[in-house]
DNA sequence: AATCCGGGGGT
DNA sequence: ACCCCAGGATT
């Protein structure tokens, strides 16, 4: 009876999912806190990359109360290496809000969930369905790909109208009987079966898939090309004195906001960096060049960096630049740092010994 | 509507 | 080299 009302698309996906679902930790719970944590971690992040962070974070903060009470420095250190660090800030902000304003109880509907910092249309739909059984369709990269191919939709998935169109379609397809299972199934299907380079030969939907029938698998989904990456050059000065290192926390609306780093000048040359920061000039007598790091690639920037180690005698006196501070190397280890700096430290024994004892 | 925000893995 | 990843916030 009710099966006849389901679109065969949903029926096939759910059947496929019964045979192919991976055993993932966030699928073993209905706790909205744990599900929320997993969804924030997995935003634009592969499962294999996010999994260790999910274990670390849920162990460090078993409940929303633990997270709300946490020191943000600790959270950033745990988030180190995962990228998109505003997620960590919004995670903390939301935890405090849920504890302080909602008595520790998560909102239980899409409409309320999407009001939380760091929770957008995808994440709100995911939590609402997985934790509360609401029939809100998730629309992530997998869903765009599957629907575009299966129904032959040529809308540019980066166009602002795309989300509305694909969400409306997914809303028609999602069964009211077990919406959470459908959401899990469609994403798993996109990840394992209808991947960017799919195996159509084994696909249970191939006979009714427009893209397969018309041989347009490689043309769908339509996605406009992104701009070329911006190229930047950072000159790092690791200034050490009396067992302490000069550091600062990045604050500007720029990459790595909230992370810590050594004295940094954005400049195409060492000479220009020194000229623009005259206090450096007398310090350079003590400078030793460190191994030139490879180009650090972000999704939208390429960063070329160079670094100098400046170990200053105890009696050497100079005025430290604004917003910088001295920190013991043992404390520096406890701060969140960009992967570029982690690589720099790893690649230079001298630096490693200073910072790690 | 455009742009920005990381890092890593697959092809 | 290019693409994509359980996207969201800001301008």
UniProtKB/TrEMBL annotation:
Cofactor info, note text: Binds 1 [4Fe-4S] cluster.
Domain HhH-GPD: 41-192
Domain of life: Bacteria
E.C. designation(s): 3.2.2.31
CDD domains referenced in this protein's UniProt entry, alphabetically: ENDO3c, NUDIX_DNA_Glycosylase_C-MutY
Gene Ontology terms for molecular function: purine-specific mismatch base pair DNA N-glycosylase activity
InterPro entries per the UniProt record, alphabetical: A/G_AdeGlyc_MutY, DNA_glycosylase, Endonuclease-III-like_CS2, HhH-GPD_domain, HhH_base_excis_C, HhH_motif, MIG/MutY, MutY_C
Transmembrane segments: none
Keywords for the protein's UniProt record, in alphabetical order: 4Fe-4S, DNA damage, DNA repair, Glycosidase, Hydrolase, Iron, Iron-sulfur, Metal-binding
Pfam families: HHH, HhH-GPD, NUDIX_4
Cofactor list: [4Fe-4S] cluster
Cross-referenced SUPFAM superfamilies: DNA-glycosylase (SSF48150), Nudix (SSF55811)
Record bears the keyword Phosphoprotein: no
Swiss-Prot/TrEMBL catalytic activity: Hydrolyzes free adenine bases from 7,8-dihydro-8-oxoguanine:adenine mismatched double-stranded DNA, leaving an apurinic site
The keyword Transcription regulation is annotated on this UniProt entry: no
Membership in a protein family: Belongs to the Nth/MutY family.
Entries under PANTHER family matching the protein: ADENINE DNA GLYCOSYLASE
Function, as annotated: Adenine glycosylase active on G-A mispairs. MutY also corrects error-prone DNA synthesis past GO lesions which are due to the oxidatively damaged form of guanine: 7,8-dihydro-8-oxoguanine (8-oxo-dGTP).
Protein's UniProt name: Adenine DNA glycosylase
Native source organism of the sequence: Aquirufa echingensis
Lineage start: Bacteria, Pseudomonadati, Bacteroidota, Cytophagia, Cytophagales
Record gene name: mutY
């Amino acid at each position: 009876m009710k099966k006849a009302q389901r679109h065969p698309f949903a029926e096939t996906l759910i059947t496929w999912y019964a045979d192919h679902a991976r055993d993932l930790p966030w699928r073993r719970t209905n706790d909205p806190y744990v599900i929320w944590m997993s969804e924030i971690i997995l935003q634009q992040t592969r499962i294999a990359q996010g999994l260790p962070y999910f274990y670390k974070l849920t162990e460090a903060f078993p409940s929303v109360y633990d997270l709300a009470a946490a020191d943000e420095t600790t959270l950033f250190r745990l988030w180190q290496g995962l990228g998109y660090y505003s997620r960590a800030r919004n995670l903390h902000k939301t935890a405090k809000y849920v504890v302080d304003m909602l008595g520790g109880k998560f909102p239980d509907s899409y409409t309320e969930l999407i009001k939380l910092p760091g929770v957008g249309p995808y994440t709100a739909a995911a939590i609402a369905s997985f934790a509360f059984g609401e029939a809100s369709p998730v629309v992530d990269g997998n869903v765009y790909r599957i629907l575009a191919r299966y129904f032959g939709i040529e809308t540019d998935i980066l166009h602002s109208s795309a989300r509305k169109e694909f969400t409306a379609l997914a809303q028609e397809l999602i069964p009211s009987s077990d919406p959470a299972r459908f959401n899990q199934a469609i994403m798993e299907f996109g990840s394992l079966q209808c991947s960017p380079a799919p195996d159509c030969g084994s696909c249970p939907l191939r006979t009714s898939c427009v893209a397969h029938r018309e041989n347009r698998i490689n043309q769908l989904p339509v996605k406009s090309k992104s701009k070329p990456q911006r190229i930047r050059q950072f000159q790092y000065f690791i200034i050490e004195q009396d067992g302490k290192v000069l550091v600062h926390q990045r604050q500007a609306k720029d990459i790595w906001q909230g992370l810590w780093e050594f004295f940094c000048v954005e400049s195409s040359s060492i000479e220009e960096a020194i000229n623009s920061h005259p206090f450096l000039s007398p310090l350079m007598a003590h400078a030793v060049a460190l191994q030139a790091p490879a180009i650090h690639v972000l999704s939208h920037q390429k960063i070329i960096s160079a670094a100098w180690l400046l170990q200053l005698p105890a009696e050497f006196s100079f005025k430290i630049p604004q917003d910088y501070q001295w920190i013991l190397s043992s404390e520096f280890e406890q701060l969140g740092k960009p992967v570029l700096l982690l690589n720099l430290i790893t690649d230079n024994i001298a630096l490693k010994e200073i910072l790690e004892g």
